[in-house]
Amino acid sequence: MNSSSLLSALQTYLQRRKIEVETLTADAMVGVMFDWFRLGPADPLDAPPAADVLLFRHGGWSEGCATGFKLSLLRRITERDANGAATDWVAGITLMFEPAGYGDLAPLSTASSDWPSLDAFLRAIESSAAYKRTMNVTPMGVLLESGGLR
């Protein structure tokens, strides 16, 4: 497993479902990511990962003179090597919105493992102020993200 294979698994899932990511709203993106998490095994050919969780994040961002508000749902797979060292691989979808109207929302990052069940995690996302404000808003950009951290 690596960030490329996890991103490839997400892209394959999106293609099979004929989902055009650039048309996703927050509501649709959450549904897609939960379906992929529930239906798409982390890596059926390798040993089961040490952890497989969803991460919900939102907050403002700034790059040079560009600013905005990001809402992400990412899948994080944790693997351990023979020495027990952990590597986290992530892949998911991030929606970017115009910053107006979101400045009062504090950044948030929470994982499905922090909740008693996946359904409770979904309810927490759906009840968040960021989700409620963005659920039917067309984002200014949508991107697939991937990465790794040792």
Indicate the topology.
Blueprint: H1 3-16, H2 26-39, E1 51-63, E2 66-80, E3 86-97, E4 108-111, H3 118-127, H4 129-134, E5 141-149
Antiparallel strand pairs: 1-2, 1-4, 2-3, 3-5
Average pLDDT across residues? 89
* Count of discrete alpha- or pi-helical segments spanning 4 or more residues: 4
Strand order across the largest sheet: 4-1-2-3-5
Return the string of H and E elements.
Answer: HHEEEEHHE
Shape descriptor reads: globular
Secondary-structure-derived class: alpha+beta
Structure overview:
With 150 residues, this protein is an alpha+beta fold. The protein has one domain (3-39, 50-149). It is built from four helices and five strands; from the N terminus they run H-H-E-E-E-E-H-H-E. The protein has helices at 3-16, 26-39, 118-127, 129-134; strands at residues 51-63, 66-80, 86-97, 108-111, 141-149. Strands 4-1-2-3-5 form a five-stranded antiparallel β-sheet. The longest helix has 14 residues, at 3-16. It starts with a helix and ends with a strand.
